[in-house]
Amino acid sequence: MTQQIISTYTGAISRNVARELLLQAEAMEAPILALLEREGRVEPTGVEKFEWYTDGFGSDRTAINNGGSAYDDTTTSIVVDDGSVFYPNSILYAEATGERMLVTAVSTNTLTVVRGVGSVAAASGSVANNADVRNIGSASGEGSDAPSARATSKVACYNYVQTFKQTVDLSGRLAESATLTEDERGFQRRKKYQEMLRNIETSFIFGSRSKTASGADSKIVTTTGGLLEAITTNVTNQGGTLTKTQFETFCISKAFAYGSGVKLGFVGSTMLTTLRTLYGNTITVVPRDTEVGINIESILVPGGKLMLVHNRRFGTVLDGGLIVVDPQSAKKRFMNNRDIRLRENIQTNSVDAVMDEWTGDVGLDYGDEVNHAVLKGVTGPA
Prior knowledge:
Blueprint: H1 2-8, H2 15-29, H3 31-38, E1 42-45, E2 49-54, E3 61-63, E4 77-79, E5 90-94, E6 100-107, E7 110-114, E8 132-138, E9 155-160, E10 162-171, H4 172-175, H5 184-206, E11 210-212, E12 221-223, H6 227-230, E13 235-242, H7 244-255, E14 262-267, H8 269-279, E15 284-286, E16 296-301, E17 304-310, E18 322-325, E19 331-335, E20 341-343, E21 353-365, E22 373-381
């Protein structure tokens, strides 16, 4: 993508300076897009609706769902959000208290359990509403039959490419106007390129996948789904201040529960300030990448390394938010021969004007969503 942009840039400034400006624009305005490009996580598609398959392990974690009932330390019939996590003779681990329970029967989302298995006694906190619980393995009885098979199936996922456009439209006179640094056409091209990067980045965060029969000009419109829509498994809404212990629990149980050991953490301003306060001088500032030019701050957390990158597109909605992205799982997809590019001189012949258009048919392939995570609603350090 970079070489295409450079070859079509027209300005009075040198080619090297132009290249640096464009790379800096991509890094500052669209860090998710820029880092996917840097990691080579870019792949063409021949169709507007692109598909992929995930075949990872099933989830081993869910939460108590008691519907407001007061479960106590004697309750042996409990409801969870996802009963498929467990099976007869599996061991349920209550993360809040350390209590283990033996699951003896599963009926949809209702579990029958033996409480207080092992050294930790049964406690009401183990079954509090929304308390996290985990399947830590099976414990079959002596001489028992083989358990029922639990096959792992490939799951089909999909998203759409979205057509992004930004137009440069100048009168013939203005197109020939010169400045001390660059001509007006070159300046407008650069600004419109930045605007399109911002639009793509924002869609990769907040977008929703769809195909609309008729848009404003009676054309079919497809939109690409973003990370907030895609990530459903590993989400925590903090709703207040954050302690270091709480953050590291999030890292262990959600951010690094699946996928690779090095992940990108895109953060809002409040979240970045919070993590700087919690980790102080243990945060390592990664030297600015000479190709992409993104400021990265590295934190070693239980489970792996988190590479923090401030994202301007989060705005006030995600000011206290963190989106953890596994760079080995996500990709930028684009229609064949329709990646981000500049179409020059698309004006009609009778008009005393010049018109160029930045355009690109791109979408987000998020891979297996369990490899990513979201932490939101942080108001500051505790």
